Amino acid sequence: MKLATLLYIKNIKGEYLLMERLKDPNKGLMSPPGGKLIEEIAETPAECAAREGFEECKIISKPEDWKLMGIISEKNFPGIGNIMIFLMEYKVLLNELPEKCNEGEFFFIHPDKFLDYDIPVTDREFMWEKILKSNGEMFMMSLDCSRYPVLGIRY
Question: Most exposed residue of 32, 115, 120, 125, measured as fewest CB within 10 angstroms of its CB?
Fold first, then answer.
């Protein structure tokens, strides 16, 4: 099973930082930045968030600057297989748009406008709703992506 983070970064207007991805998975779609944990060094999700925040967004942060919002496991995600994703919230507001990186171009988008953009099916149907309604409480869910884009919930 692969392990990864997605980074949920907001600005003062309540908009989230999304990236139009240049690479798979989710190439051409709007998704939060993030990346895979380095298993060889037993990297924690918070350490991964700090590293990926710098690599993709040039955010200088510490693991303590990130909060675990939720955990999603996806069974048989196309092109990846089984993956567990740690949804990490940046505790600091970011008001400057990061420069484009080798992973994609960044945009701040208000949650009211998410459905106006091409976002991954898993994000559209499950993740954003959970994140926006979590009220600071951590959540977990398991998705069966075997028939992607049709998803099954496995709690």
Answer: 115
User: CA–CA separation, 11 vs 104, rounded Å?
Assistant: 19
- How much of the chain, in percent, has pLDDT values that exceed 70? 99
CATH number, domain with residue 82: 3.90.79.10
Q: What is the distance in angstroms between the CA of the first residue and the CA of the last residue of the chain?
A: 17
CB 90 within 8 A of CB 17: no
Residues 6+ apart with CB under 8 A from 135: none
The amino acid present at 135, given as its one-letter code, is N
Dihedrals phi, psi of 73, to nearest 5 degrees? -105, 135
Name which residue leads in pLDDT, 154 or 1: 1
User: Within its chain, how far is the Cα of 76 from the centroid?
Assistant: 18
Q: What is the pLDDT of residues 2-55, one digit of tens each?
A: 999 999 999 999 999 999 999 988 899 999 999 999 999 999 999 999 999 999
Count the helices and strands in the chain (H runs, E runs): 3, 9
What is the extent of the structural domain holding 144? 2-153
Distance CA 86, CA 147 (A): 23
Q: CB neighbours of 26 closer than 8 A, spacing ≥ 6?
A: 120
Domain count, the chain: 1
